[in-house]
UniProtKB/TrEMBL annotation:
Regions annotated as coiled coil: none
Matching InterPro entries: ABC3_permease_C, MacB_PCD, Macrolide_Exporter_MacB
Protein's cellular compartments: Cell membrane
Membrane topology annotation: Multi-pass membrane protein
Name this polypeptide is given: ABC transporter permease
Lineage: Bacteria, Pseudomonadati, Pseudomonadota, Betaproteobacteria, Burkholderiales
Length: 438
């Protein structure tokens, strides 16, 4: 019977075409408003690396001065100092460890037709690529030996490699950036996790473009490359110049641990607690506050990557959808009320209330299906307009298969919910009264 009712529902779309079009448009607008905002929130709050997010850990050490500090207050900055990074890189816990900071360099192409241009990159240690599963199109990451030696090597992004060398394998070639030449050892394939959880404090931002290049951390330090981002220094032991930044308690670096299993987090926490006590005895970490440890999702929550404004906008959009449903209920009541004689005749011929209810409910589902199709098109249009606002929004404003399926489910469910009252009213028609009126 469902197939028969579905055919009746399709045919019913031609009855009162103006009323039907108004219902479909009302439902489509409500679905588009809610799904476009929900898609943005979904992209912002998704788990960027779900299969190992509980094994990637960020340590936060409080190196601020004791003067003026209120016990229990959060650290002045959640980034790490260079002395702590050097110590943590040799820590006996975790299967991988990496430190990084953002850099902004001038790329100096060998081609005469291409002028110099600025690019945002990252300076991590070699474990970065395996830890965050960066895919490679050509070559590979630099080795641990090159990391220790501070070798002048570079991994390019696919976009930058094609801009400099075309669609060829550039491994082994030289790239000159900010006065130094670097040998290309690899080309990273397109890799843009959203949000950019591995380096969200500075650089390209939480939803910015992919890194244009990667230089070894030790190489960037050897060349005294400035960082792209924020920095906080303990003024009591601050020293001038780049060397002073390395020696003092200036927080400007990002650090990550990777453990073999989620249970190994306890070992990392124990090590950090011991490390804080040791540094306190040496005269550092005057506040003597316990180290904090965050996995990927905890880190995104702590950094408030998804703000209350985004969540509020979703609630407002669904409130607008509810308003559209109220209007759809009124339109369905009007549509079904004029069919009371038809219902009376069908009841008189033996149709049960259940059959009438099923028929009309399937008809509302057909309206929801058509409204969902139109709503999907409107959602794509709304996301395209949102993507024009900022570069970061462009990276977020696209719909995946999950949201695509949810759009149709939401539209059909919304139409069915809106049709419950009109359908129930239609089932209450008294056959005798309708036959007498004919």
């Amino acid at each position: 019977m469902f197939g028969y009712y579905f055919k009746l529902g399709v045919k019913s779309l031609r009855r009162n075409p103006a009323l039907t079009a108004l219902m479909v448009l009302t439902l489509a607008v409500g679905v588009a408003a809610s799904m476009s905002t929900l898609t943005i929130l979904h992209m912002m709050s998704g788990n960027p690396i779900p299969h190992k997010s509980d094994r990637l850990l960020v340590p936060v050490l409080d190196v601020g001065p004791k003067e003026g500090y209120t016990p229990g207050s959060p650290p002045d900055d959640v980034q790490a100092t260079y002395p702590d990074v050097k110590n943590l890189l040799s820590a006996p816990v975790g299967v991988r460890r990496t430190a990084m900071y953002g850099i902004n360099l001038a790329v100096e192409p060998a081609r005469t037709d291409l002028p110099a241009f600025q690019q945002q990159g990252l300076a991590p240690t070699h474990d970065f690529f395996a830890m965050f599963e960066v895919p490679f199109k050509y070559g590979q990451a630099w080795t641990e030996a090159e990391d220790k030696a501070g070798a002048d090597v570079v991994v390019l992004s696919t976009d930058l490699a094609e801009r400099l060398f075309g669609k060829t394998n550039p491994v082994g070639k030289q790239v000159r950036m900010s006065g130094y030449s670097y040998q290309v050892v690899g080309v990273a394939d397109h890799w843009k996790p959203l949000p950019r959880y591995y380096h969200i404090i500075s650089g390209n931002g939480e939803y910015g473009d992919e890194e244009a290049f990667f230089l070894p951390f030790s190489t960037a330090i050897r060349h005294e490359m400035g960082h792209a981002g924020s920095m906080s220094c303990n003024v009591r032991n601050a020293k001038p110049g780049f060397a002073g930044r390395l020696e003092g308690d200036c927080t400007w670096l990002q650090f990550w641990f990777e453990t073999a299993s989620p249970g190994d987090r306890v070992d990392v926490q124990s090590y950090l607690d011991s490390y804080v006590k040791e540094q306190h005895r040496l005269g550092r970490m005057e506040r003597n506050q316990p180290a904090k440890l965050y996995n990927v999702m905890e880190w995104l929550e702590e950094r408030k990557v998804v703000g209350s404004d985004e969540k509020l906008s979703v609630w407002l959009a669904f409130g607008f959808l509810a308003l559209c449903l109220v209007n759809t209920i009124g339109l369905l009541l009007a549509k079904f009320s004029v069919r009371a004689p038809e219902v009376g005749i069908r009841r008189a011929l033996g149709a049960s209330r259940r059959e009438i209810f099923s028929q009309f409910l399937v008809e509302t589902a057909v309206v929801g299906l058509v409204g969902g199709t139109l709503g999907l098109l409107l959602s794509y249009g709304a996301l395209a307009l949102m993507g024009l606002s900022t570069p970061s929004m462009k990276n977020l404003a696209h719909m995946d298969l999950e949201m695509l399926a949810l759009t149709f489910v939401l539209s059909i469910a919304a139409a069915v919910v809106a049709g419950l009252l009109p359908t129930w009213r239609a089932c209450q028609v008294t056959p005798a009264l309708q036959l007498k009126s004919q």
